[in-house]
Protein: Protein kinase
Amino acid sequence: MFGKRNSSAPDLSPRPAPPAAKPVVGEAVNAGTDTNVDQAPAPPQAASAPAEAAPAPAAPARKAPERARSEEYYDVKTTVFNALIDTIDLTALAKLDADAAREEIRDIVNEIVAIKNVVMSIAEQEELLQDICNDVLGYGPLEPLLMRDDIADIMVNGAETTYIEVGGKVEASSIRFASNAQLMNICQRIVSQVGRRVDESSPICDARLPDGSRVNVIAPPLSIDGPALTIRKFKKDRLTLDQLQRYGSISPEGRTLLSIIGRVRCNVLISGGTGSGKTTLLNCLTAYIEPDERVITCEDSAELQLQQPHVVRLETRPPNLEGEGEITMRDLVKNCLRMRPDRIVVGEVRGPEAFDLLQAMNTGHDGSMGTLHSNSPRECLSRLESMILMGGFNLPARTIREMITSSVDIIVQASRMRDAAAKITHITEVVGLEGEIVTLQDLFIYDVAGEDANGRIVGRHRSTGIARPYFYERARYFGDDKRLTECLSSAEVNDEHGRPLGEKFATA
Structure:
């Protein structure tokens, strides 16, 4: 089928190539890319692999590389891979679908292994077949990690070092790349799928995988020890507030309060540090958007997973080689105001687009949402102020704060605790302005009581005793006033005198 140029694969010695030939793996991958390996059906394979995998076989996936992948294994793989590249017709391979291409590669690799008379067990040969198929069609050594649903982050620090985050803890992985050249080739393959590039002239790049997972690449010369690749993986199944409740991130009453906030079209900012679950929580809140609303999302890398039927997804664009053609987040937010949105959702507010988002929130686009990095609701407002000033707006501080208080209704604070558990620590209402100070009131907070014998944080979510928050009239307009009152009153915790604790431990 492939028009093999040399089906007998000449000069195939029965022993692996000497160690000096090892770097050829990276060179062969690059050569394959130049001759249309990238045009092979890698995206469908990469997209389908996580969907077919299940969390159950996670442990064996970690043990296999430790058991078989010695230096000798990589030498054998180098020799077989080079023979495959010399044998296969890459142009014909690119025309096949992922399954057919994978089967064809397996047949040729089996033939090469037989001719070379390589002594391998059936399990080792199967691993070799899988690795070579991944190198040609997928993301190489990353494929086993991408297939595991229990991994939250993949951090590649050059060809020799890879770390993963499992259950909130970072651990070393035995995955390695043949060379920095192979790692760079895989980075190029990932970012090219979304029309971006990473090289010496543009060494920093944000991209995404077909399943929405967030990707960041920083290449030499900025990354000294080889390309640094970071992937924030998304789970196959979209999380809901009910699941966050089961995980202990929020209490049942807090889950009800958040669902009401999402439904009654409060303007919401989700604040938190890196890895605290801001994007996950934003996805959960958007589940309560009515299906007849037109939602427009603006993101640096499109990763939100909205389930509504009427969603328009916008994504920023970096400049081209000449430094032109850049589309910033502010450009997207300003443009989406002309697209008749009911709600605007900004994936992450990090610059002067904060000014345009606040204007949108204050001009009829109720229920708009966004995330930003900060460590508390009070700091969230300071960050908003700073980002507006970054845009060069020469406005008095009071004017900016009046804009914030008239635009933002709710701040939801997400935090990653020291035991790696993600918690929603504050649901805070923006009340108004007293003099030069923005007034906040906590509706729902998380009290830390200590830790158990296993080092896990012990605490509780509770209401602060405010029965009629400022958005009560909005909830009554949508028919959710009784449910709002019930969830706040049922989450109250009294002190030894029978009085609600209020905001006494709000900063715990």
Observations:
- The CA atoms of residues 267 and 409 lie 5 Å apart.
